[in-house]
Amino acid sequence: MDYIRNAMFIIFMAHALQVTSGARILGVFPHVTKSHFVMAEQLMKGLASKGHEVVVLSHFPQKEKIPNYTDISLVGSMPGFYRFWYDIPSEAIVKKYFGESIPPLHELVRNTSLILANRHFTINQPIPNVPAVIEVGGIHVPIPKKLPQDLDKFMNESEHGVIVFSLGSTVKASTFSEQKRDAFIEAFRELPQRVLWKWEGDALPGQPKNIKIIKWMPQGDVLAHHNVKVFITHGGLMGTMEAVYAGVPMVVIPLFGDQFLNAKSYEEEGVGVQLDYHTITKESVLNAITTVLNDQKYAERAKDTSQAFKDRPMSPLETAIFWTEYVLRHRGAPFLRTAGADLPWYQYVLLDVVSALILIGYLSPCDHVLQYKVCNFSIFRNVFLNLKK
């Protein structure tokens, strides 16, 4: 279960006195990237709205006070090697507010009752899961809201639709090399569509009339607009799930991490195409965009996938809250816990079994040699005894 620490983890400390009573819930999210916190933020807010007392440790405290929601800010702590730069400072804060008797965080992580997985089988392929793993992919996707007036006007007045270009919260398009930046600019210049580009700079050199730059956008609300035709993205899971939810086909430019796997998955699903960042030219950008625009199968497949993604008995947030409260009602729900969670790592990855098989394979030829020698000795002994008679 230690692999969970490489993403984020939630620690629940609760005592449910009655079925209807609220719980005290501690959420520990030490990662410094906003995209890792978005999913957890929605869950914590949802639990607080249900009357639970929620305390959250993160680098992203809420700007406005929320009932039943208490922030303990980690802003300013130095990221680095997980055990030393995350666990130790986090443990100090937890002990300060919850007492010295609380076990170390790494022990609490191993005592996991439930895993809320930010995935969904419609876009991430089906996998065998144990009952304690619940898929809540799309939990962060907001209910679409009306866009700001200037943005709404820009979107509505585009006769041929809008292309949205955003590389998320981690990658800045303004750091592109001049060659790559100009490749996008010149490609966009030849398109009849308007382009809404998340650009962190104050100006875009050589900006065509059909491009609007914006330092931040309400991405989920923008993608939900009826006039969006294509989403150009780096392939981050959060942003692409928003596009899937909205039924918008994609041009994916994977840059690092899981983005390559996501891009391949969406391409195989037929909801987008990949664009190699290292070989970007005006022609390759134009080709990728026009392929998605002109081949109706991408838009149709995106709509079908969106419908399947949203077709659930409960919303992702309601699902996460239900199962969290289920664990609370059943005092940790130990019956959900698989024996594999308590295995040593070498048993979990079957190293003991593999080692035994290798040893058997190594000893097997030796056994044949030994049998051959014993057999020869027996034959020689019998022949020798017969000669003596």
TrEMBL record:
Gene3D superfamilies: Glycogen Phosphorylase B
Main location: membrane
Subcellular location field: Membrane
A GO molecular function held by the record: glucuronosyltransferase activity
Keywords, sorted A to Z: Glycosyltransferase, Signal, Transferase
Membrane-protein topology: Single-pass membrane protein
Signal peptide: 1-22
Domain of life: Eukaryota
Gene Ontology CC annotations of this record: membrane
One Pfam family linked to the record: UDPGT
Reactions listed under catalytic activity: glucuronate acceptor + UDP-alpha-D-glucuronate = acceptor beta-D-glucuronoside + UDP + H(+)
InterPro entries: UDP-glycosyltransferase, UDP_glucos_trans, UDP_glycos_trans_CS
EC annotation from Swiss-Prot or TrEMBL: 2.4.1.17
Coiled coil: none
Family named by the database record: Belongs to the UDP-glycosyltransferase family.
PANTHER family documented for this protein: EG:EG0003.4 PROTEIN-RELATED, IP04436P-RELATED
Descriptive protein name: UDP-glucuronosyltransferase
Organism listed in the record: Diploptera punctata (Pacific beetle cockroach)
